[in-house]
Amino acid sequence: MSTSTQEAAEQQDWMNGGDEGAAAVASPRAPSSRYKGVVPQPNGRWGAQIYERHARVWLGTFADEAAAARAYDVAALRFRGRGGAVNFPAAHAAAAAEMAFLAALPKSEVVDMLRKHTYDDELRQALRSAAAAGGCGGGDRATAMVPRRVALFEKAVTPSDVGRLNRLVVPKLQAEKHFPPLDEAVPPPVLLAFEDAGGGGKVWRFRYSYWSSSQSYVLTRGWSRFVREKGLAAGDTVAFSQAAAVSSASGTDAGEVGVKRRMFIECRKRKRKDDGGGGGGPGDGCCADGGARVVKLFGANIAAAAATGASCMC
Fold it and tell me: Taking a C-beta distance cutoff of 8 angstroms, is the pair 90, 144 a contact?
């Protein structure tokens, strides 16, 4: 399967839920559920689904009927707003924080969380971040939300990374060292969440998968939004890091990277040849708010030693 064909298949997979969703459609009709948007499965589990513009969106399978009903409720709140019909109205009556969380996410990312059963964890993390931001005053808010970090790796993005393919190719060595392991024979996609290193509590979510056709690890769904909002262009650098351990009480050294610790993403802009101006402006290869120029040679920033001012982070 070519890369473009596989990408198109991933886009279609968001709607029909892949093999799991197709099996639910093909299965013999079973007694209906008492909950809206819930369908029984032949294996005794329960599926959840919602319709968007007359097209079925598969939300995943769950161990019990109530869990599937709650997944439908979450999707209904995101797809139809607070006025949408839900199975448990009392549970969402005063959930203003959850509504704000859902409103900030694309529908496809909410669906991914429900399918991967990560929605509750993501919501708790967002609420904790919001609470931390509320407890900080003024300009210290963003700084207080970003802990001391351990650098993982950097990559200078290529034209194809910021093109129409909607994917970032992650170097194989770095992917296998720092990201969750994937089964190359049957590679199930994984949803990875990265906090914006600039603070503010923003979380970027990307689908992480292995493309056997090109034998490469990629970040796909959600990547184009990051490129667009950050204004990335070929030659810019994307840096990944992880929160450092604060103590070794659990047997983890302070500088050691742990798979369950928070991960962060940031970018550095290269100098734009067609930009004018000078003295700290875009012509110096910086972000709009200033920063140091980045010149890459074999993956190393050779301008770092001579540059002055803060790094050009965004």
Answer: no
